[in-house]
Each structure stands twice: as C-alpha cells, then as structure tokens.
Design brief:
Elements lengths: L1 H11 L7 E2 H8 L5 H10 L11 E2 L14 H11 L11 H4 L6
Parallel strand pairs: 1-2
The structure holds a DNA duplex (13 and 13 nucleotides).
DNA sequence: TTAATGACCTATC
DNA sequence: CGATAGGCCATTA
C-alpha cells in the first residue's frame, strides 16, 4: 500500500540521534490522522532492521508500552546508543532531540 | 461491504 | 494529575 510506503519512508528518513512522534511521522507522511495507522504500519514492520521503529515515540516522549518490539528497555538502550538523551522520567528528551525536518 | 482492531491524540471530568 | 470517552484513518477477516 502506498500509505505504508510513505510511513516507512518517513520513518527511515529519521536521522540518527533524533526521535519523531507518531503524529509527526503521520503528518510528514501526508495526514496527521494517520497516527494510529503509523502504529499499525510499524506493528507489521515488514522491513525489520530497515525501519528504526525505536526512533518513533509518543508525543510526550514516552516509548510504546503496548507493543515494544522487544522491550521498552531495549528501545531505550537503542536510543541511548544513538546519542539520544533520556529524562529521569524514562522518556526521551523530545524537547531537544525532536526530529527537525531538514529540507 | 460491514464490522472489528490498533505501537495514537485531544478533550473533558 | 489520573482516568474516561470520542474521533481519526487504514488494514484485516
């Protein structure tokens, strides 16, 4: 589906050391209402290893607690490994690491 | 085609 | 601030 392709493309374009929210990815994909669809697309994750799902977080910076690809701690470790700072709340420092579109 | 599901977001109490 | 309800869209059965 083209919708998924767009979502995957956007997620793959997320630079290392940055995080994007579902809503933002959805907005970049073309529709802000695709927030749920983005989650669904990542849930299918037909291209593991190619799609950095760990860079996609909630609007608040929290990680996906419902269906982490292997555990929230793993996602946190991956992000930390890429240079993404974490807050004591266990959330990503979205305030300083939010993906900024570079046109 | 209809109904149900989902890794969301916003508003309200 | 925590919990609940509703809305949004695409995919699947």
């Amino acid at each position: 589906m083209n919708s998924y392709e767009k979502i995957y493309d956007v997620v793959t374009r997320i630079p290392r050391g940055c995080v994007a929210t579902y809503g933002q990815v959805a907005a970049l994909a073309g529709n802000v209402h695709w927030a749920r669809v983005v989650g669904y697309a990542l849930h299918v994750n037909p291209k593991p290893g190619v799609i950095p799902c760990h860079r996609v977080v909630m609007k608040d910076g929290s990680l996906s607690t419902a269906f982490a690809f292997g555990g929230e701690n793993v996602q946190r470790a991956l992000l930390e490994g890429e240079g993404v700072p974490f807050l004591p709340d266990g959330k990503v420092d979205v305030a300083g690491c939010r993906w900024k579109i570079d046109f």
